[in-house]
Amino acid sequence: MQKKRRTLITISCLAIAYIILVVMMLTYERSISKLLSQRFDNCVRRSLIETARLVEEKDMLNIINDIARDTTEQSKNARAILNDTDPEEVSDLLFGNANPTSVADVVPGTVSRNEVSKDKLQDARQLMLEVLARKYEDASSRSIQERIDPVFLRNTFTRILNENGITDSFSFVVVCRHAGIIEHFGEKPFNFDDSSDVALFEQTLFRREVNDRPLSLIVKVEGRPSYIFRYTWHVLPIILCMTILFILLIYTIYYIIRKERLAEIQKAFVKNMTHELKTPVASISLASEMLADPSLSLTPETYTSKCRIINSEAKRLTNIIERVLQSSVLEQKSFSYSTDSVNINEIVTSARESFILKVQQQSIGGKILLNLNADQHIIYADRVHLTNVVYNLMDNAIKYREPSRPLIIEISTRNTDGRIFVEFGDNGVGISDEHIKRIFDKFYRIPTGNRHDVKGFGLGLSYVKHVVTNNGGNISVQSKLGVGTRFTLDFQAFRA
Fold first, then answer.
1. How crowded is residue 372: how many other Cβ atoms within 10 Å of its Cβ?
2. For 189, phi and psi rounded to 5 degrees?
3. Number of folded domains in the chain?
4. pLDDT of residue 328
């Protein structure tokens, strides 16, 4: 009991340590996943901002090209300023962010900033403002398709995403919300107003424009789980290896305990076998010495009696050897049963006739009751071994009887759902829950306390289960200590 308790404590400690390690790994993985999710969102947002800037820059270049193609006098004067001007500087001039002295660098014919007068700079800036404002006003009234090239947008956003470490696929849509009406275009349709989609990102385009038709770029990036998994996949193999190690450790403990238990059972088997063999050997030896002693004048009756003792004990030795050999043979894979049509009602009836006298001798008032209610009582099994099973169960009922009351053995047969159930019940000492799980183990014997009249090697019920299961049947047991035991066999039933 103490050894079992130590084993349970060891396994419990291992299980607790394993659970703590797994929880820690999962907590770590969850924290890393949260940080990676935020990192993923930040990368997508940075990519969107940069893409929006490049789209605006391209739109500015288109406006400059429109001015270059415009034949109006005002546009001709503005072209002189725009020819050598960077789009970013043009944008600064348009929205009032430039230092006036910086304009001198883009006005043709200037030599240095100090030589440019303030009035000329202001005139140049005013002229550009008027032309660009008109072009911008015209551009803001154009459709989405005219202002934005989807191929350029996709290529630009893909390149920037890749630079930020995201190579997953995405779909986008450009939306124009105007007077309650939503116009949009994109490569793949999706519900861009679905706020529950955590992978949906939005960026306003042409933010410095003031109009009633704002444009928004909405992108749905599908790779957040794969992005997170790319950096956290190593957690799963670690947990898997920990689980395998834990299972192997538990199995090793179980294997060691099982080996120790088998060693104890085999030790008990050897002890019982030695005891069983010593008795007939001693009887044969004593009888032989008496017969061989010339000083003893034996009468014919005494001589015959001693010979009977030798013969009886020799048969007993033979039975012991056969039972051990039979158990060994049954475990061989090459062993096969001889299947035949068997009337189970006849077998249990014959067994009752064989055991009734023994029951009455062993227990005053003892009896064997038969309730043969099965109509379909034919099964296909090995007749010899099945008969041994019935005799074995009845012999156990007699062995483990309760001496304080008459032994009653009840044998019944019944049919249910095409199967035949054969039950062997008794009112013996019963089996405790601690031992009932192991009664079919080879060499296992239930401790009998101070009773030494119960002989055996722990092979009987192991043999019973082997025969029943290998002949297509099942066996179960119900028992209560101090009340009795009931074994139930069931087989596929056939009509005679």
1. 16
2. -70, 140
3. 3
4. 66
